[in-house]
Amino acid sequence: MSIKLIKLVSGEELIAKVEEDGDTLKLFDIAILVPIQIDDEGNTSIALMPWLPHADTEKGVNISHTHILCSLSPNKNIESQYRKATSGIITPDTDLEL
Question: Residues with Cβ < 8 Å from 92, sequence gap 6 or more?
């Protein structure tokens, strides 16, 4: 299972653990990327929020390829944030010097 950023034709940007399942992608631990303003100067960041938080998505959600604009590997920063949010395990920065 790999972690992918998925842009839906609706415009939503998701990050999830993904399995290919025929004509669909099966998504697990799905989060939506939400831009947020972080200061009064208009600077923004990205927050990860649960996607369909009131639905039972534990067994995965199948999304047809016809509803997916693209599926890409996330950059290391977003992937690290996603792993922290979904696993509860905090990983150290890769730039640590011993």
Answer: none
User: For 34-38, 42-46, 70-74, 92-96, which range has the lowest pLDDT when averaged over its residues?
Assistant: 92-96
Structural domain total, the chain: 1
Give the position of tokens 């509860």.
88
* Kind and range of the H or E run holding 9: none
**What domain range is 63 assigned to?**
2-87
Whether 96 maps to a domain, the answer reads: no
Work out the pLDDT band at 98, boundaries 50, 70, 90: low
The pLDDT assigned to 67 comes to 97
Residue 65: closest CA among 9, 11, 13: 9
